[in-house]
Amino acid sequence: MAKGAQTREAIVDTAVEVAFRVGLGGLTIGELARQRQMSKSGLFAHFRSKEALQLAALERARETFVDLVVRPALSAQRGEPRIRELFERWLACARDGSPGGCLFVKAATEFDSQPGALRDRLAQDHQDLFDTAAQVCRSGVSVGQVRRDVDAEQFAHDLYGVMLSFYLAYRLLADPAAETRARAAFEALLAGVRT
Amino acid sequence: MAKGAQTREAIVDTAVEVAFRVGLGGLTIGELARQRQMSKSGLFAHFRSKEALQLAALERARETFVDLVVRPALSAQRGEPRIRELFERWLACARDGSPGGCLFVKAATEFDSQPGALRDRLAQDHQDLFDTAAQVCRSGVSVGQVRRDVDAEQFAHDLYGVMLSFYLAYRLLADPAAETRARAAFEALLAGVRT
DNA sequence: ACCAGAATCGCACGACCGTACGAGGGTGTC
DNA sequence: GACACCCTCGTACGGTCGTGCGATTCTGGT
């Protein structure tokens, strides 16, 4: 990989970490340059607007999420194992504070009222995630572990709710019972769609 | 009410509206002054730091949420009616974009990784909300509509999840089915705790 | 009508913002 | 060794940020 591309990757990594704390909107070229110990202009040259930087960070976050959560889940056995894998990976990514995966979800609330390229991209990505989760749910139908008349979109929706609720309790309230509750909610959800 | 207090109230109202779009962190004294058509320094004098302004906005958001959601729910009949009232009011406040109520929830994700007075206050308020929701759930036990062995905290947690998931689908994705799904999730939740 | 105090203003400050541009340094190819 | 090209830098611009202060205007009680 060329030197420039390497630097760019490193910058984006740092951007994700910072944005994970202060939000994508709170990202600052100056602060980022400080952290990477390079000049503002040198850093800026890699992106050519702040929005491009934010989009790059968002994309990295999405990739991280896909690598850490979605892909491993999709390579698990169809049906319940796959559903469980999706949930467990997602939970782990939130719990261990892997910045990428978390940012991807966190940015959603930040930009839900700010029209623009970021919001559009975020909406697209989340729609994809919902579709994937629904598909995972349906994979359970084909192996007879999930009710044939299941509402897969509803399941995806509800699963997301469980995760969001976990994020909040775990990160804002630092509630030690957060994980237990998330698991309980997940099991209830699963019980509701099982054959 | 003295003139000054009146102005302050108006400023805080505007602050809540703006923060609802750009986040509490995105609040700006200059922009606020522009919207209220007064000088930056004149506006600033009412608070004496930006953080105080943010805290004031957060408090107003909390009050709005309590007025619009919590109090009406608590004055409904114990048991299922009260639980339903809590859910419906909450849903309505999110759906109609009442800035106060929404901001209160939205700010939670914004500051979950930024230590400080805002985060602390937010955590306290959310804990209170959880406690209230749990209490509302328990009110159903006393009238025999909710299972005696219900985990009220879990219920509160799950209810929050349903709301968060609704926020996302409604605001980011503009999904027309969001409300229907939220209602379905709520009914499933309720069915799980009924006697 | 007057006066005290509250409310608001104008102006200034240093810091940082995002962005632009040209100069210089490094590296790889002929 | 010369050349081209990619990175990175310094410097600069106009703007906005949060905050402080003294001067001015407004308001309410006497």
TrEMBL record, chains A, B:
Gene3D superfamilies cross-referenced by the UniProt entry: Homeodomain-like, Tetracycline Repressor, domain 2
Keywords, in A-Z order: DNA-binding, Transcription, Transcription regulation
Residues annotated to bind DNA: 28-47
GO molecular function annotation: DNA binding
Pfam families the UniProt entry points to: TetR_C_13, TetR_N
InterPro entries the UniProt entry points to: Homeodomain-like_sf, HTH_TetR, Tet_transcr_reg_TetR-rel_C_sf, TetR_C
Location of the HTH tetR-type domain: 5-65
Protein name in UniProt: TetR family transcriptional regulator
Organism annotation: Actinocatenispora rupis
